[in-house]
Amino acid sequence: MRNYILIVYDVKEKRVNKILKICRQFLDWVQNSVHVGELTKAVFEKLKVKLTKVTNKEEDSIRISKIRTGKMLRLEILGIHKKQVLDNGII
Q1: Which residues are annotated as a binding site?
Q2: What does the entry list as the binding residues for Mg(2+) (predicted)?
Q3: pLDDT grade, residue 3 (50/70/90)?
Q4: β-bridge mates for residue 5, sequence order
Q5: pTM higher than 0.70 for the full model?
Q6: 38-63 pLDDT per residue, tens
Q7: Residue set of the binding site for Mg(2+)
């Protein structure tokens, strides 16, 4: 079974790029410090392990929301979609 995952993080500047790279391996980057996508349970656990290894529990915050299916999520975007910006090579 796949879950729709939403990750939002606020980490110290020295770890931002590490967290960003890990999240982008598994999820779509939709906005600064926000990633979403569908993952199997096994892949989700792998993501959490990688994030835990680079996170400082005393300084960083990573919030993960799981939704059983993307069909339950209704997404509305006002303005530019971050993925469009990436695909066009702007960022």
Answers
A1: 10
A2: 10
A3: confident
A4: 37, 66
A5: yes
A6: 999 999 999 999 999 999 999 999 99
A7: 10
